[in-house]
TrEMBL record:
Catalyzes the reversible transfer of the terminal phosphate of ATP to form a long-chain polyphosphate (polyP). GO terms for molecular function: ATP binding; metal ion binding; polyphosphate kinase activity. Mg(2+) binds at residues 383, 413. This is Polyphosphate kinase. It comes from Zobellia amurskyensis. It catalyses: [phosphate](n) + ATP = [phosphate](n+1) + ADP.
Amino acid sequence: MIKTNYKYINREISWLRFNERVLQECEDENVPLIERLRFLGIFSNNLDEFFKVRYATVKRIFEAGKSGKSVLGGEKAKDLLVEITKFVIEQQRKSVEILKNIENELEEQDVFLLNENELSEKQGEFVRKYFNQMVSPQLMTIILNDLAEFPMLKDTAAYLAVKMVLKSDDRTKRTYEKKEKRYALIEIPKGIDRFVVLPKEGNKNYIIILDDVIRYCMDSVFPMFDYKSISAHMIKITRDAELDIDNDLSKSFIEKIYSSVEHRKISDPVRFVYDKNIESDTLDFLKDKMGIEDADSVIPGGRYHNKRDYMGFPSLGRQDLMYEKITPLPVKGLNLEGSLLEKIAEKDYLQYTPYHTFSYILKFLREAALDPKVKTIKITVYRLANDSQVAACLSNAVKNGKQVTLQIELRARFDEQANIRYAEELQAEGVKLIFGVPGLKVHSKICMIEREENDLIKRYGFISTGNFNESTARIYTDYTLFTANEPILKELNKVFDFFETTYKINKYKHLIVSPHYTKSFFLKLIDKEISNAKAGKEAYIKIKMNSFTSYKMIDKLYEASNAGVKIQLIVRGINCLIPGIKGMSENIEAISIVDKFLEHPRIFIFCNDGDTRVFISSADFMTRNLENRVEVGCPIYDEDVKQELIDTYEISWNDNVKARVFNEEQDNAYRVNDKPKLRSQFATYDYYKDKLGPDIPTAE
């Protein structure tokens, strides 16, 4: 077992610990049963992405003949690959056990998941009809025995590995001796729901997984073979998802990204997962044909893979088995029916989704698109919804004669193809596109408009911690500041100028912009807290973010801790800092919250000798955010908004239901104390509901 470095937790292991917290949600009896299944899907999807990105990176380091100790927190790449595989095998085993327990509890609620051997005659007739009409036309089946080359498997797909033992008699035994076994692959169709809902019987709900529909109808798939036995076990592979962008000067940036995304389909496999009950001869056949060696990450799993599909587990109309839906609240003082720009001109407002409705962003863009006085709209985009109203607003603005400038990040991981499609569509509409800064991803979430008022240009805008995506806004918690503060917006305009004039480094008095200023800015703020602590003054730092991996920032917080600065950290995901170690981090406490919504905001609070300073940002304390991306952080000057951010931070910090404690043991222990139970996400919704007063609906 890899031991924790005396100063840092290994990034990859910390990531797996985070996914373990997601798996804890699957076990939590306070989480509704169908939601627990959906968390299992999130766990699986996270694991897929981990292997595509992080495991693939470590493997590249190892295959390059390097130890990787300098970038892997002191661990050797070879040892880390072995440790990750062991870790994941145990997590997979646990997830299978958890799934079985959930299925047993679902049966107590009259929800039954059947396999192909458990169908009644009537259900069997339904399944065959469903197979013939819906599944068979989309089935991709390959006989493997006589192929010169093994087919290229997709890393987004799951396959049934089929073994048929053919019948033979004495006259044909010699002829068919070598062909007695036939192997085939069936790709599970992606265009069909993975969970097939069978006809309800009384109060009983029945579901069969698509894989078992295919297993039930194997005789229809292989009628040409006279077999005496047939078996089908699931396998899947995960491929390296790193983009290798070529330097061909004759290609446009879009062409390079598209080519790189296409190359992903044939990149090296980094993980092979198989049903642990598969026959040894079938497994050996597959590993031999696929060139899989013992050094690769070979993971025995359960009967079903691609458990990410559980994120879409059918509701069955059983609201009692799901979280109660909340009605997103209005922002106090900001009416969606009037002019947003008029209200924002008077003061700043804070939108905190999903507690607040995302409609304010759409309303802002729609109003800007129609207002004759608005001349320009500038916005950055990292991830858009599949059917994006944000994109529609920008298209509408162009049709109304506005000059629209869009910085779209084509390298947003796993959203490259969607962003290419939007880029091409919006460019055709007349939107001016900017494709980022060479060598840097643009991860900032900013928008600014220019409006002509009394023969002068007046700016309005918003700065966010999350993507302008109405789909994820329902489940991601994120802050968005709406402001007409001219000094801030003047500097926001400088950021857009930088996208077009990348050699010119601007200076900022208000905004905190990566890659040039974010790290140095926060280091200075921490130094000030250190100085105040040494002078005997009150000194504290409170931070909430997604991940914390920058050794430089960790070391600075260790220094602050040793100086007596009280530090509170809320980190959802990876955290390489070790809190609570005497002589190093004894004044640092750190927790992680995993609950109904995905905690996504970044907020930074500094005591500043009693004159509290508060910031929001798109940047985590990760090397990539501080040095290799364009990020924008913003100071909060409006006292009401500042207090709101402090209040919501404190609610999160006081969570003692869904908060896990970071410690040297990395055991993901839930925080336990004698205070009244406080579940921060529920309490945050109540906080905003109370702000609005009585007669506000609490659920749909």
